[in-house]
């Protein structure tokens, strides 16, 4: 898993980095793969601009490291979900890099947006009124993003709300720099909601003529140029998640997750394994206990269904996922292949993030954002 330092024969080899030698599992994050994915998306949507969504600590991969790498690659617009995420990101990305906060201002937080040069996404009449009042109080126009709800019923102004705002000149004190909306079904290319939401967005845009527009997150980028408008907002695709379920993934994998063997044992046929004795060895088996569990975000739903891999060989999980450990049936490997301290792949060349998520009964987004900070982390590139 890492370079092995030369050592006298009686001292077992150890990974060169002591924190990796101590770790039960190692999460490797390839920042160069993230920037390559961003460049590939940017080239696909040009002349539209490619932003980057780094909410939820860049989907669990480290907003600081990811944002620095993307900024160095040329990304100039970033989205986060919460005000505090925006404030933290502003310390890493100085103005004029744009940072937009998707949830907009909670009542009373408007001044924090101006203090930290953050763009609020105004989603409701209350948020528009609050931010316009703040602009009036400061006596200057304030930049803001306006979101329309075109059919997801989550964030954004309805068409009639936007119509009444425009009729009342209620956006007058604001400099609307972007008009956005979000698709509910973009991962299903032939879903009729995609075209319907696009039409609804075109109708909303007529109320804000000349304002740059944004509709697409990762999946919608692959619906074609009609969906790109002036700016796209990928998150998942940057991190290697497949944008369309069932289609080949055009993006580079970004994460590798390795668990390390703590203990090996020989078990006779019929030996019960793990909490609740939910599994029993069908035949004589060799088992390996690996030092990662649900407290590391390795979902318990992988009990008895997930697998690790070792250089092309599948090693099924047997028994329940524990808080800090899992048990693998490694009988498919020749005896002596694995020793304590050796690594097996949970996410890697034989099993990508989406495949592991499917085994867990979830999607890559949930698995990625749940992979905890408890893993030893190693960043490549950047
Ligand atoms: C999370 C989010 C995105 C990014 O979505 P991905 O599917 O991860 O690309 C874009 N826009 C909005 C409004 C979001 O909430």
Q: Decide which structural class fits the backbone.
A: alpha/beta
Per the CATH scheme, the topology name of the largest domain is TIM Barrel
The ligands found in this model are: pyridoxal-5'-phosphate
Low-pLDDT ranges? 1-14
CATH H-level superfamily of the largest domain: Alanine racemase
CATH class designation of the largest domain: Alpha Beta
Shape: elongated
The tally of helices reads: 12
Short description:
The protein folds into 2 domains: about 30-240, Alpha-Beta Barrel (TIM Barrel), CATH 3.20.20; about 255-380, Lyase, Ornithine Decarboxylase, Chain A, domain 1.
Q: What descriptors fit this protein?
A:
382 residues, Alanine racemase, Lyase, Ornithine Decarboxylase, Chain A, domain 1, TIM Barrel, isomerase, binds pyridoxal-5'-phosphate, Ala_racemase
Task: Report on this structure.
- Keywords: Isomerase, Pyridoxal phosphate.
- This is Alanine racemase.
- The active site is at 55 (proton acceptor), 275 (proton acceptor).
- With 382 residues, this protein is of the alpha/beta class.
- It has 2 domains: 31-239, Alanine racemase (TIM Barrel, Alpha-Beta Barrel); 255-380, Lyase, Ornithine Decarboxylase, Chain A, domain 1 (Beta Barrel).
- Helix content is 28%, strand content 22%.
- The chain has helices at residues 18-22, 31-45, 55-59, 63-73, 83-92, 110-115, 125-138, 159-167, 192-205, 218-221, 353-359, 364-370, and strands at 25-30, 49-50, 52-53, 77-80, 98-101, 119-122, 142-147, 174-180, 213-214, 231-232, 255-267, 272-273, 279-280, 285-290, 307-310, 313-316, 326-329, 343-347, 376-380.
- A 7-stranded parallel β-sheet has the order 3-4-5-6-7-8-9. Strands 1, 11, 14, 17, 18 and 19 form a 6-stranded mixed β-sheet that branches.
- It is elongated and about 80 Å long.
- The site of pyridoxal-5'-phosphate has 12 residues, from α10.
């Amino acid at each position: 898993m890492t370079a092995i330092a030369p050592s006298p024969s009686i001292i077992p080899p150890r990974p060169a980095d002591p924190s990796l030698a101590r770790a039960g599992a190692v999460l490797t994050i390839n920042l160069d793969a993230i920037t390559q994915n961003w460049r590939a998306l940017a080239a696909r949507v040009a002349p539209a601009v490619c932003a980057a969504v780094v909410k939820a600590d860049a989907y669990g991969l480290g907003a600081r490291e990811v944002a620095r790498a993307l900024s160095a690659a040329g990304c100039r617009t970033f989205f986060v979900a919460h005000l505090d995420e925006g404030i933290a990101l502003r310390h890493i990305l100085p103005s004029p890099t744009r940072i937009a906060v998707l949830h907009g201002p909670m009542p009373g937080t408007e001044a924090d947006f101006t203090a930290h040069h953050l763009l609020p996404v105004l989603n409701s009449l209350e948020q528009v009124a609050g931010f316009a009042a703040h602009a009036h109080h400061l006596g200057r126009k304030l930049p803001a993003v306006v979101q329309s709800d075109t059919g997801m019923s989550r964030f954004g102004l309805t068409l009639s709300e936007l119509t009444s705002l425009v009729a009342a000149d209620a956006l007058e004190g604001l400099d609307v720099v972007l008009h956005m909306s979000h698709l509910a079904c973009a991962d299903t290319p032939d879903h009729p909601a995609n075209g319907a939401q696009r039409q609804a967005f075109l109708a909303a845009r007529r109320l804000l003529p000349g304002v740059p527009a944004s509709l697409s997150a990762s999946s919608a980028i692959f619906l074609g140029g009609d969906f790109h408008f002036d700016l796209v907002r990928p998150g998942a695709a940057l991190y290697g998640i497949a944008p369309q379920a069932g289609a080949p993934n055009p993006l580079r994998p970004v994460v590798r997750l390795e668990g390390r063997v703590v203990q090996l044992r020989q078990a006779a046929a019929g030996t019960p394994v793990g909490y609740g004795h939910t599994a029993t060895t069908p035949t004589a088996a060799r088992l390996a206990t690996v030092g990662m569990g649900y407290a590391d975000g390795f979902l318990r739903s992988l009990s008895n269904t997930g697998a690790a891999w070792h250089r092309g060989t599948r090693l099924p999980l047997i028994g329940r996922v524990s808080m800090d450990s899992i048990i693998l049936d490694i009988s498919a490997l020749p005896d002596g292949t694995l020793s304590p301290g050796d690594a097996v792949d949970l996410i890697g060349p034989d099993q990508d993030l989406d495949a592991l998520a499917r085994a867990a009964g979830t999607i890559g987004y949930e698995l990625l954002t749940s992979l905890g900070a408890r893993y030893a982390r190693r960043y490549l590139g950047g």
